[in-house]
Write a structure and sequence with these properties.
Structural class: alpha+beta
Largest sheet: 2 strands, antiparallel
Number of strands: 2
Distance between the termini: 31 Å
Order of helices and strands: HEHEHH
Shape: extended
Oligomer: single chain
Number of helices: 4
């Protein structure tokens, strides 16, 4: 939410989407020691939350990027 809010302020736009995917260090290095643990966070504002077509296009692009990264 903080990142989305700052992007909205910097761009003066209400239409912002943020997707973050990261490994969860605490889970990997302490606790259960799960080495494939991922944390995903998504914030959708404006058209990204209100317009189904825009939301779908955003998530489709994320899927394409993930497939491309796996192919390398």
């Amino acid at each position: 939410n903080d990142i989305a809010r700052e992007i909205m302020k910097a761009t003066e736009s209400k239409d912002v989407a943020v997707y973050i995917q990261a490994t969860h260090g605490c889970v990997e290095h302490r606790g259960v020691l799960a080495h494939s643990s991922l944390t995903q966070t998504t914030v959708l504002e404006g058209a990204f939350s209100e317009c189904e077509h825009t939301k779908k296009e955003f998530f489709d692009n994320i899927k394409l990027q993930q497939q491309f990264a796996c192919d390398k």
